[in-house]
Write a sequence for this structure.
């Protein structure tokens, strides 16, 4: 696929149908790597989707979508909030990472643009950003490593209790 024009926008409550559509696509592709299953997400009511989309306007975190120019189609999403690393320390955490199949890779620029926006927010909160990624998601682990995240050897139970997660940290 050729490069695509897109913009990065903060999500808002009215984006709930787009939030839902992208999450369903994400979980349809592989729900093992995420905190909920496809069946769980399909059971959520409108209010849950509105809450998730509204996170882009809340002062305690960040949630951004890559939107294809000339359309409202979301190509990817990322978020961040202040959470706890395995050592108990408070830190900005990268969450809800997903870019649609066919729009991934450095040549597309979507992942890097979304990540830069989350990192810009994280810099206002601390000097590092952490994340967890399913241990079987080798492609994501490699992508994070290429972007400066380091696996420091900590394994935790993955959200949803479906395997183990690798904790990675990037100094900002």
């Amino acid at each position: 696929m050729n490069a695509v024009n897109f913009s990065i926008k903060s999500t808002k409550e009215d984006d709930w149908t787009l939030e839902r559509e992208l999450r369903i696509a994400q979980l349809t592709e592989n729900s093992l790597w995420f905190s909920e299953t496809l069946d769980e997400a399909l059971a959520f009511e409108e209010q849950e989707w509105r809450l998730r989309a509204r996170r882009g306007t809340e002062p305690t975190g960040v949630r951004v979508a890559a939107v294809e120019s000339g359309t409202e189609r979301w190509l990817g999403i990322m978020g961040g909030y202040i959470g706890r690393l395995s050592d108990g320390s408070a830190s900005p955490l990268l969450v809800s990472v997903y870019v649609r199949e066919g729009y991934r890779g450095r040549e597309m620029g979507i992942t890097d643009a979304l990540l830069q926006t989350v990192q810009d927010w994280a810099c206002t909160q601390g000097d590092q950003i952490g994340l967890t990624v399913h241990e079987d998601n080798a492609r994501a682990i490699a992508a994070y490593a290429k972007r400066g995240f380091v696996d420091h050897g900590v394994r935790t139970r993955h959200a949803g209790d479906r395997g183990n997660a690798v904790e990675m940290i990037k100094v900002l």
